[in-house]
Design a protein that fits this description.
The protein is about 45% helix and about 15% strand. By secondary structure, it is α/β, with parallel strands linked by helices. The protein has 3 domains: about 200 residues, Rossmann fold (3-Layer(aba) Sandwich), CATH 3.40.50.720; about 80 residues, Rossmann fold (3-Layer(aba) Sandwich), CATH 3.40.50; about 140 residues, NAD(P)-binding Rossmann-like Domain (Rossmann fold), CATH 3.40.50. It binds nicotinamide-adenine-dinucleotide.
Length: about 450
């Protein structure tokens, strides 16, 4: 890409909430910026130093940057491309009538940029910032820029935008998160990171696209969850604002990365029963709480996906590493792995289990009753000698919790062993001859 590290020229396509903030803030950073929009009124406003949208601080910033000569606008896409080395695409990606993603505006801009780049000398970077589903940027790169990329004239990136309206300037200057999607690992992000954010994490295009959706879905989940707790609390005469404020004080389990890693279905003696009780109480109160109600169903689907993975491998012998719901405990109540074994036995798989924490003779009370009801033949399924249990080929090894040493596994795993890692067991991928993560 053209290296203009001191004062790069940037064109910004789409001068709405994202584009006009981006254009003004990049000019503030010293870039020479040309904005482009199909709405002549917006172009005119910017050229007069006025913000085309209402955002605190933007009017003043835009006026200063336009009068300093670092920011102007045009309705002519070719002119914007000619005047820049980097194009940022910030046009809208609305929903179609059915709720699907509408890429019409992004495609129109991509076509305009591609035609203009083909006519100009030098290289050009195209950075999509509009929110788009995984695969969209690569699809567009191939469709509009394939030949230009092959000729080394264009590189395409996806740089998700995380600013919030109302605090957009502060968010742009100090983003809460910053990632840059690249087509191939070898592609250099320097020219883009230099103007947008030095600290941006490079990742595959599709990962950066999914990251934006994951963030928004997570935010929506948080809001819906808090509102459901609010409605249940109100129906019970409880001050839920106070309850949620306390919930947020726990920064070890609640507001933290804990419980946010794709992996095992939830289980144990508390989560399934407590979610179920809360959901039923909401129903009894006539409070509609679909987010909370959906949790057990979502968990069940996740377990089903594991069963489907095991079936897809094709081996009839299955060895489960770890039966209890987490390491260091023999608590089988609500363990998703108990359900897995019961389902696989019903489907005529030959299942054996290695879990040094579980000794059927030591199980007592509700734990013993649960195991007896779900897996009456548990004692006959357990194997102590892991190396011996790995003598069958082909065999699927479902690794649920790290209950064996990596050295033992390395020595015993071989041809015909396929490992399905349920919970992200460190180093397992390196020692398994054939490996897949349940959901990664
Ligand atoms: N608004 C936000 O807070 C926010 C935050 C993060 C990400 N996003 C994402 O950023 C993208 C833009 O959102 P927005 O809120 O700024 O949209 P917006 O509707 O405010 O602005 C889009 C602009 O694109 C212009 N446009 C359409 N076709 C064009 C073309 N062919 N050439 C030039 N300009 C064209 C429109 O005239 C409009 O001014 C969307 O994908 C959105 O999901 C928005």
């Amino acid at each position: 890409m053209e290296q203009e590290t001191h004062s790069p020229t940037v064109s910004v396509f789409g001068l709405g909430y994202v584009g006009s903030v981006t254009a003004a803030c990049l000019a503030e950073r010293g870039c020479s910026v040309i904005g482009c929009d199909v709405q002549p009124a917006k172009v005119e406003q910017i050229n007069q130093g006025e913000a085309p949208i209402s955002e605190p601080g933007l009017d003043e910033l835009m006026a200063a940057q336009v009068s300093a000569g670092r920011l102007r606008a045009t309705a002519d896409a070719a002119e914007a491309v000619r005047a820049s080395a980097i194009s940022l695409v910030c046009v809208g990606t609305p929903s179609t009538a059915s709720g699907a993603l509408d890429l019409r505006f992004v495609e129109a801009v991509a076509g305009e940029i591609a035609s203009a780049v083909a006519e100009k000398d030098g290289t050009h970077a195209v950075v999509f910032r509009s929110t788009m589903l995984p695969g969209s940027t690569r699809g567009m790169a191939e469709r509009f820029f394939g030949e230009l990329i092959a000729a080394g004239k264009v590189e395409v990136f996806f740089f998700p935008e995380f600013l919030r309206q109302g605090t957009a300037l502060a968010d742009f200057r100090d983003p809460s998160l910053s990632a840059i999607g690249v087509r191939e690992e070898a592609v250099s992000v320097e020219s883009i990171a230099a103007i947008l954010d030095e600290g941006a994490e490079p990742m595959p295009l599709e990962s950066a696209e999914l990251l934006k959706y994951a963030c928004n879905a997570f935010h929506a989940t948080k809001v819906s969850f808090a509102n459901e707790i609010g409605r249940i609390g109100k129906a019970l005469g409880i001050d839920s604002t106070r309850v949620m404020a306390q919930l947020c004080r726990d920064q070890r389990l609640n507001i933290s990365p804990y419980y946010l890693r794709p992996g095992t279905p939830f289980g144990g003696s508390c989560l399934p029963k407590d979610v179920s009780a809360l959901s039923l109480q909401a129903r009894a109160l006539n409070v509609f709480s679909p987010t909370i109600d959906s949790l057990l169903e979502s968990n069940r689907r996740h377990l089903e996906s594991l069963i489907e993975r095991v079936e897809a491998v094709g081996a009839r012998d299955v060895l489960l590493l770890g039966l209890a719901f987490k390491a260091g405990t023999d608590d089988l109540r609500g363990s998703a792995m108990v359900e897995l074994v019961a389902s696989l036995l019903m489907k005529d798989f030959s299942v054996r289990i290695h879990d040094p924490d579980v000794a059927p003779r030591n199980l007592v009370g509700a734990n013993q009753r649960f195991a007896a009801a779900k897996l009456p033949a548990l004692e006959t399924l357990l194997v102590e000698d892991l190396a011996g249990a790995l003598d069958r080929h082909p065999q699927t090894i479902v690794a649920s919790k790290p209950c064996a040493s990596i050295e033992t596994l390395k020595a015993s795993l071989g041809e015909g062993h396929h490992v399905i890692d349920v919970n992200g067991w460190a180093d397992l991928a390196e020692v398994a001859p054939s490996y897949e993560g349940l959901c990664w």
